[in-house]
Amino acid sequence: MVRHAALKNIYETEKTIGTGGFAKVKLARHLLTGEKVAIKIMDKDCLGDDLPRVKMELEALKNLSHHHICKLYQVIETETHFFLIMEYCSGGELFDHIVQCKRLSEMESRSFFRQILAAVAYLHSKGYVHRDIKPENVLLDKDQSVKLIDFGLCAKPCPAINAYLETACGSPTYAAPELIKGDKYLGEGIDVWSMGVMLYALLCGCLPFESEKIDVLYKHIVSGHYQTPEHLSEGSRKILRDMLETDPTKRITIRELLSHPWVQLGYNEPVSFASLSQELRLDNNCVNTMAAHFHMSAEEMWRHLTVEQYGSHAATYQLLLSRKKQGLPLRLGQYTSRTPRSRLQSMRRTGGKGTYVMLPTSQTQTAQNDKENGGKQMQPPDVTPAKILRKRPRSPQRDSCASPAPKKMATTDKQHGSGTKLQIPKRSNGSEPNTPNNRTSSPSSRLLNSIERKFQHVRRVLTPKRRSTESAQPVLLSAKNMSNISTTSSNSPDQVREELIKALNNRGIECVCKGYSVRGKLQAAGGKVCKLSFELEVCLIPTSANSCGSVVGIRRKRLKGDAWSYKRVCEDILNMADLK
């Protein structure tokens, strides 16, 4: 169900797969290609002083193109929301992989670390620093390839990457000592420290610096003392010491890490951070597919794609490239109403690279007759140069996360802040309008009203009722969708569900059951703030490709809150339920 008009007829949103302080991420399907995407939705009213960070995140994502950085397909900006359409990574968070495996082998840790290192080195080469590197901000795609995400705290030091920064930000458990002390710092140095904490988490399955009390945690970090488990090799201990050096002037650099002996072990070569993905490359098959669908010549289609970066057509093109890479057929479906070409009539480019602002239909034609600051700007086909409105009246029908459907508004010119005139039926007989004292209507109008009422009744009868979202049976997983799964020794899904609910209740965690999904919510002290929310779904896992048998499993998903608290809670619940 699409709750935002800006997404209608382009994407079909499915379920929420993540939430943050001022954003939520929804799984969605791109209607033309059928490909899955992740849509990050940000409410402008909730952003407040964080709006500049969103602008920086958009700038970074538009200027970065790397095979280990999550790809941005499209940006839509309305009066009330930002919509970032991103690459969907079905493998989940790297953190969930740690939870499932308890800790990773040195070989697997090195494989993931090399990919993360390549992404961060590329990021730094472009002049950006991430400042929030942690396993929760590293996703895995279906091939278990790493994708770095969440550039909301990134910065571009001026005049160069070696300029000092002052803003203290990031996650406390991954913060470098210089951040905690309040010193000026180099962005590269704090990224290296965070990567060191993350590498420790991969190798050990826990954090090097941990405490429930924030002041105690900070003391541990500043001291730089941490436990070194016996299973760690000398090479692992050495690279951790190099990265978790409390003196930033002595800490190993990204360039030195690329050729570190531990990093090269088994690969016999340094890490290359060169990008394997181009920003925009010509693929004749994809261009021809789109040109045929939109009734354009291939040349016109390609010209349009080179101008309209991060618009709906560009997203379609990138998703077609993805399908081709997977060996899937190149074909486009049909929109239920407006096509992207007609949709472009109601879009106008802002000053940002490839960001489009959705205009009310009534404003579009007026805006198209204006000039932009006395100059010309490249526009998509069928869109004339338009003036950027510095401030637009706020529309009463806002895209709201809290409202499942727009409310009906009184039809007055004042409420239509744009100055749109309402369409009032003309009266040929010169009679007065229908006021409370003049409600008589002609026989013909009564007949039309009667026909309309009957038509509405027929439409309600024929409209399919919305299906219940509750599953009658647990989901049978495919071999491609086996991330974040714990197997059980039980063969009864109902019994597993009941044991989960019982364990959650015994631990004092509020839970809601919907079908075979159990959603838990842990309240902070006082009970007013949600400290942690997660979902445990009972599912069926096929025993083999050639067998009809299956075992009962539990699929885990963190929705909100601290990742390590989530890890501990999940372990406790599974132990209490005795399902391992």
From TrEMBL:
Residues 334-348, 417-433 have a biased composition (Polar residues). Its EC number is 2.7.11.1. Residues 525-579 form the KA1 domain. One of its GO terms (cellular component) is cytoplasm. It catalyses: L-seryl-[protein] + ATP = O-phospho-L-seryl-[protein] + ADP + H(+); L-threonyl-[protein] + ATP = O-phospho-L-threonyl-[protein] + ADP + H(+). One of its GO terms (molecular function) is protein serine/threonine kinase activity. It comes from the Eukaryota. ATP binds at K40. Residues 11-263 form the Protein kinase domain. Residues 334-449 are annotated as: Disordered. Residues 434-449 have a biased composition (Low complexity). Keywords: ATP-binding, Kinase, Nucleotide-binding, Serine/threonine-protein kinase, Transferase. One of its GO terms (biological process) is intracellular signal transduction. Belongs to the protein kinase superfamily. CAMK Ser/Thr protein kinase family. SNF1 subfamily. This is non-specific serine/threonine protein kinase. It comes from Graphocephala atropunctata. The lineage of its organism: Eukaryota, Metazoa, Ecdysozoa, Arthropoda, Hexapoda.
